[in-house]
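Private note to self, pasted from the team thread so I don't lose it. Backbone tokens:
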């Protein structure tokens, strides 16, 4: 039986409590997943994407008022990781722009933790993930 390396996830969100919770959630999935790093802004995300070699980058769309779609191409250029958007923004046009810009999927922040974990595993294996459809 061959041991599989855990899915290394880079967390990018401007809210410290969200980063803390995601770290606990993903850390609880060891040995299937591990947190490769945490970033709270564009510069840290770009630096860590190039240095920690994540498999998946969990990226918030709104980083303290900065739209992460604006640096998504640069992020993808610095790392072969798959990007999974993690957002509270329900704007389907933004979701579509993220997917067209190279993101592998979108998960809304109000979806159950199990959905997020399944999405991380799925995109790490090359699949794409569309956001759940909610009213409005």
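Design output:
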């Amino acid at each position: 039986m061959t041991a599989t390396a855990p899915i290394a996830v880079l967390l990018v969100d401007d809210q410290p409590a969200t980063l803390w919770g995601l770290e606990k959630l993903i850390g609880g999935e060891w040995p299937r997943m591990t947190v490769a790093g945490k970033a709270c802004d564009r510069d840290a995300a770009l630096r860590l994407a190039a240095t920690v070699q994540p498999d998946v980058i969990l990226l918030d769309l709104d980083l303290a008022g900065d739209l992460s779609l604006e640096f998504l191409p640069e992020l993808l250029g610095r790392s072969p990781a798959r990007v999974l958007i993690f957002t509270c923004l329900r704007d389907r046009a933004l979701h579509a722009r993220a997917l067209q810009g190279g993101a592998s999927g979108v998960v809304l922040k109000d979806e159950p933790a199990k959905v997020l974990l399944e999405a991380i595993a799925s995109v790490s294996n090359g699949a794409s993930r569309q956001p759940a459809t909610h009213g409005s």
